[in-house]
């Protein structure tokens, strides 16, 4: 079943992590599994997630490191506090029904210092439809785990910038990954924390456009370029979901964008009678 649905799994993982994904079927154990890694690092040199059936309607996902991943582990061990915070938040966003453990560490403050690191997730009672089940496991469990690794490694995204914000988000550029969002991990966390309803106009794109409605964008409430001094990054308070129209409207004022409250007032009083303009 896993081997026949590699394309489905890869598409979910690449959309969520913003990185090219490599994978291979692993028949070395009694139940056939799938090994997943970042394609540009190759299986031996970076983090590897192993996915196998578990029980009657479940999967087990174990994340560790390849045999020659020392350089990447050292890079991760030196990640900044903001990247560590975001990586932990990504893993913490996994649904509470999934049993997630880090070998020998507490989940609240796990860290990677050696190649012996192991994170395991057990997902039970999945839907009977195999494609629905694999989509759920990929999107809701493997994506946050691998996205956390991408954040710690320093994967970032270069995009044409039309909002007056910095080209880069997060840590030092490690590789170039072209996606619509500058950091797809931010979009993942924003949606998990706040949902997909626009914080300004209340539009739920999926209700309006159906399968074409995955268009919610991520807005930094305090633009990175305007930070007076570094402070801890908190995805719960620093990000907001906006529809494309409201996101563009927010950034029509520069260098300091309109606040969400100001945009809501503008929509209620477009002629500026309230004196915002």
Automatic annotation (TrEMBL):
<dbReference type="InterPro" id="IPR002711">
    <property type="entry name" value="HNH"/>
</dbReference>
<dbReference type="GO" id="GO:0004519">
    <property type="term" value="F:endonuclease activity"/>
</dbReference>
<dbReference type="Pfam" id="PF01844">
    <property type="entry name" value="HNH"/>
</dbReference>
<dbReference type="InterPro" id="IPR003615">
    <property type="entry name" value="HNH_nuc"/>
</dbReference>
<dbReference type="GO" id="GO:0003676">
    <property type="term" value="F:nucleic acid binding"/>
</dbReference>
<protein>
    <submittedName>
        <fullName>Uncharacterized protein</fullName>
    </submittedName>
</protein>
<dbReference type="GO" id="GO:0008270">
    <property type="term" value="F:zinc ion binding"/>
</dbReference>
